[in-house]
Write a structure and sequence with these properties.
Length: 419
C-alpha cells in the first residue's frame, strides 16, 4: 500500500494565517480550507492555464473543479480574454447607460434556450435566482416558493440561517429531487399560495451523489406548476452551456417559464441571466425594481458572446460529452475492480461525482478523505464535497493521467480497508 507524498503547501498556510488577521475566517464560502481537506489542499492559487493550476507553492494540478463551474473552455482562454481586453481599452465597459451588446446577447439566448424570450442580465447566480423569485412573486401576486437544489446565498434560500430572520424564509418549502409525490403533496397544501417552483432540472445536491431525472419527474413538476398557476423556474446556472447549449431543458425536453443562467456562459467572466417567457418577464418592467451599478457592464456581455461563438464553432459540448463519457466508463471500471471501497460514480459526462456511499457508514467519510487526499497529492484537483467538471482543454493525455491516479488512489483505499 504505497501512499503518495504530502504536498509542500507552506506558503499557502502562511498566507492563510495572515488572511485570518485581515478577513473573517481568512477565506469565506466554498473556498475555505474546511471545504476541502485541511492540511492537504492548497489554500491560495497563483495562476492557471488550460486545465492546469499552479498554487503559491509551485504545485501543479490538473483541475476538475473549473472554478466551481464557470471554466467551460479553459483558464486564460486567449480568444475570450483578448476580446474583453479590447472592449476595455477601445470602448470602455462601465457607463451610466447600457451598451448595445446587451441586445446581441439577448438575441443569442433567444436562439439557444427554449424558454428564452426576454432576458435580464446580472452578475452572479445568487443575483439571478433571487431576481427570478421576485419576478415570479410580482407576476402571480403570491408569496410561497417550492425549492429543490442549491440556489445561492441570499436570505430566502441559504442553508446556513445565521443572521436571517425566520420570516424571510418561512414561506419557502423544500422538496427532494425525483420525489414527485413530495412536491405534489406540498402543492396540494400550498398550491394556491405558491408563486414559484424553483429547481435544478438535473440533480446536483450539495455534497451528495448526482441524479438524472426519473421518467416523468420533470413532466410531472411542469404539470403541477400549470395546475396551480405557479411559475416554474429552472436553475440552470451549472447545466446550461454544459449539458447542452440550451441547457437541461433542451436535453430533457421540458420547458420552464423562467430560466437562470450563469457560470459556463462567459468562461469565468462575471455575468448571469434571468430569461423566460414574455408574459412572466414583463412583471420586471413595471411591478418591481432590479438594478445595480455593475449589471450593465459590457465586459461580461463580450465574454459571453465570444465564449458562445467558440463553443458553437468548435462543437465544445460534443467534445466534452465524448471525452467525459469515455472518462466515466474508465472510472466505473476502476470502481468495479475495487468494489470493497464502497465508491459510487454518478452524474453525466460533462459533470460527474465520485462519492463513497456504500458499505459501513462509519468508514465512508474516512474512505472519501483518503481517496481525495491521494488524488490531490498526485496533482489532481477534485474536491470531496462537490462534483467534477470536464472542460474543453482537458486533453486525452490529461484524462489518461487522471485515470491512472484514480486507479492508484482507489487501490490504496481498497488495501487500507480490506479487513
Amino acid at each position: 500500500m504505497k501512499e503518495a507524498p504530502k504536498l509542500n503547501i507552506t506558503k499557502s498556510i502562511e498566507l492563510f494565517e495572515e488572511a485570518k488577521t485581515l478577513v473573517p475566517g481568512g477565506v469565506l464560502g466554498a473556498r475555505k480550507p474546511g471545504d476541502f481537506i485541511m492540511g492537504e489542499y492548497p489554500i491560495f492559487l497563483e495562476y492557471g492555464k488550460g486545465c492546469r493550476l499552479i498554487d503559491v507553492d509551485g504545485n501543479e494540478f490538473i483541475d476538475f473543479l473549473c472554478g466551481y463551474g464557470p471554466i467551460i473552455l479553459g483558464y486564460r482562454e486567449s480568444e475570450v480574454d483578448d476580446a474583453v481586453i479590447r472592449q476595455i481599452k477601445d470602448k470602455g465597459f462601465c457607463f451610466s447607460l447600457t451598451q448595445p451588446y446587451q441586445n446581441e446577447l439577448a438575441k443569442k439566448l433567444n436562439a439557444l434556450v427554449p424558454s428564452a424570450e426576454l432576458s435580464i442580465f446580472l452578475k452572479t447566480g445568487s443575483d439571478a435566482t433571487t431576481a427570478s423569485i421576485r419576478i415570479a412573486r410580482a407576476y402571480t401576486g403570491r408569496v410561497k416558493v417550492m425549492r429543490c437544489g442549491y440556489h445561492g446565498w441570499h436570505d430566502w434560500c441559504v442553508e446556513m440561517k445565521g443572521g436571517i430572520p425566520e420570516k424571510f424564509y418561512d414561506d419557502v418549502h423544500e422538496f427532494h429531487y425525483n420525489d414527485l409525490d413530495m412536491i405534489a403533496d406540498l402543492m396540494k397544501k400550498h398550491g394556491d399560495q405558491t408563486a414559484a417552483i424553483i429547481m435544478t432540472p438535473f440533480g446536483h445536491p450539495l455534497h451528495q451523489k448526482m441524479q438524472v431525472p426519473k421518467p416523468g419527474f420533470l413532466e410531472g413538476v411542469r404539470e403541477l406548476a400549470d395546475k396551480y398557476g405557479a411559475v416554474l423556474i429552472y436553475d440552470e446556472v451549472r447545466t446550461c452551456f454544459r449539458l447542452r447549449m440550451g441547457g437541461a431543458q433542451e436535453l430533457y425536453g421540458v420547458t420552464p417559464d423562467l430560466t437562470v443562467l450563469g457560470k459556463g456562459m462567459a468562461n469565468g467572466h462575471a455575468i448571469s441571466v434571468v430569461t423566460g417567457k414574455k408574459d412572466v418577464m414583463m412583471a420586471a418592467a413595471s411591478k418591481l425594481f432590479i438594478s445595480s451599478t455593475f449589471f450593465p457592464n459590457s465586459d461580461g456581455y463580450i465574454a459571453a458572446l465570444k465564449t458562445i461563438e467558440i463553443m458553437e464553432r468548435e462543437k465544445v459540448i460534443d467534445n466534452i460529452w465524448d471525452k467525459g463519457s469515455r472518462l466515466m466508463e474508465r472510472i466505473q471500471n476502476i470502481i468495479d475492480k475495487y468494489e470493497n471501497t464502497g465508491a459510487e460514480l454518478t452524474g453525466v459526462a460533462p459533470m460527474f461525482f465520485v462519492t463513497f456511499t456504500k458499505g459501513d457508514p462509519a468508514m465512508q467519510k474516512d474512505k472519501r478523505t483518503d481517496f481525495y487526499t491521494q488524488m490531490i497529492r498526485k496533482g489532481f484537483f477534485f474536491t470531496p464535497h462537490h462534483h467534477a467538471y470536464v472542460s474543453f482543454r482537458h486533453t486525452e493525455e490529461d484524462l489518461g493521467l487522471t485515470v491512472k491516479a484514480m486507479e492508484e488512489s482507489m487501490a490504496y483505499v481498497s488495501e487500507k480497508y480490506k479487513g
